[in-house]
Amino acid sequence: MxxxxxxxxIDGTLVDHEKKIPPSTEQAIxxxxxxxxxxxxxxxxxxxxxxxxxxxLSIESYVSFNGSYVVxxxxxxxxxxxxxxxxxxxxxxxxxNKHPLVYMTPEGMRTSTHQTxxxxxxxxxxxxxxxxxxxxxxxxxxxxxxxxxxxxxxxVYYKENFSELGYIRWHLYGSDILPPGGSKARGIQALIERxxxxxxxxxxxxxxxxxxxxxxxxxxxxxxxxxxxEVKQAARYVTKAxxxxxxxxxxxxxxxxxx
Length: 259
Hints:
alpha/beta, Rossmann fold, Hypothetical Protein, Haloacid Dehalogenase-like Hydrolase, Chain: A, domain 2, 5-stranded antiparallel sheet, 8 helices, 30% helix, globular
């Protein structure tokens, strides 16, 4: 079989909702690598957040921050950060609105404020599990992604006034903020070019709204069975849920692993 390049999202794809890797998935990834295929993580997480999964599965290549920071076999092959002037404006306004803004670098993350407009709301942003406070963390650093904590109706203001940025909502109170043109698809494109694969030899598995561009871009795209309907519609194939050995099932369905 011709060598293939396979991208996997993490949350809801490689790991279940308890953040555990199903044994069948560990076996499937090992068999792919034994067969000579290349395996890559494609995630909204930063490099410092994906280590438990990458180390458990011995994966050294990844598309992180939803495509803004890409590493192929230990080498950074693509990076795209948020403009620092615009980030300073965004930070000032979000702090004034008591909407925490989390600044993310490959090494770590810090938050702009621990104040929130939703202190009395039982559903406040992930119970305010915010990283350490450091309002000036972004100064002098490349920030590849931010997390903005606000309600969807409040996000309208940011979309209108910072329209060049990308927004991916993943929680009632949380959105990823991406650099202009940022997406997993853009990061994957850069890695494909660097690795030298033909598009017909590229596969991708995902389950979330931040996987839409990836699944639309990659030639052989697979949505997990636990995906929203919108994500399933964007993919060429649909496999079983992550908790139903969806990765193993999907790879066998595609003929990448023996049935």
